Amino acid sequence: MSFFKRNTGLDAPRSARSARELRRSGSGSNERFGRWTESIARGMGTPWFLALLTVFCVAWLVWNTIGPMEFRFDSAALGFTALTLILSLQASYAAPMILLAQNRQDDRDRVQIEQDRKQAERNLADTEFLAREVVALRLAIKDLPDRDFVRQELKALLAELAAEEVEGSSQQPESAMGPESPQGPDSTRHDQVKPGE
């Protein structure tokens, strides 16, 4: 019987076509009935319901005990049989409604727990990814030179440049004179010129 089937697709949105199919199959009316019973069960779980039920029972007992005899409808001699039947009928309907509301709440809780589990798995995967990235960054930073290493390298380069500059300045005068005579390039020309020319 489809009346007692449990709706397992509480988290899935319904399209227009599926809503029509639900109405035709009777699941839509089951859903409305379920919402209605949940509202009744929610109402019975409030202090106002207990207060009203207590006022009703007290008024019933008082009226049928001290009220005019011709207007009494439940006999105290019979143990208020009508009140007992009404309260038994109310309890017999309240118990299944409460169970139905609990079943629907269990379905919603199951869907919520599944969604929370998937979210937790995504969060765990994101956390693991970020942890791997942090480790990779730490390893990359560890391989980078630090300030002291860079200073030492710069000092070594400056010392090498200074040494090359000293060597270059000591070799420069010899190369400037070259193989030419100390008189310069024009001296050979003056020697070749004959007197009187």
Automatic annotation (TrEMBL):
<protein>
    <submittedName>
        <fullName>DUF1003 domain-containing protein</fullName>
    </submittedName>
</protein>
<dbReference type="Pfam" id="PF06210">
    <property type="entry name" value="DUF1003"/>
</dbReference>
<feature type="region of interest" description="Disordered">
    <location>
        <begin position="163"/>
        <end position="197"/>
    </location>
</feature>
<feature type="transmembrane region" description="Helical">
    <location>
        <begin position="75"/>
        <end position="100"/>
    </location>
</feature>
<keyword id="KW-1133">Transmembrane helix</keyword>
<keyword id="KW-0472">Membrane</keyword>
<feature type="compositionally biased region" description="Basic and acidic residues">
    <location>
        <begin position="187"/>
        <end position="197"/>
    </location>
</feature>
<dbReference type="InterPro" id="IPR010406">
    <property type="entry name" value="DUF1003"/>
</dbReference>
<feature type="transmembrane region" description="Helical">
    <location>
        <begin position="45"/>
        <end position="63"/>
    </location>
</feature>
<feature type="region of interest" description="Disordered">
    <location>
        <begin position="1"/>
        <end position="31"/>
    </location>
</feature>
<keyword id="KW-0812">Transmembrane</keyword>
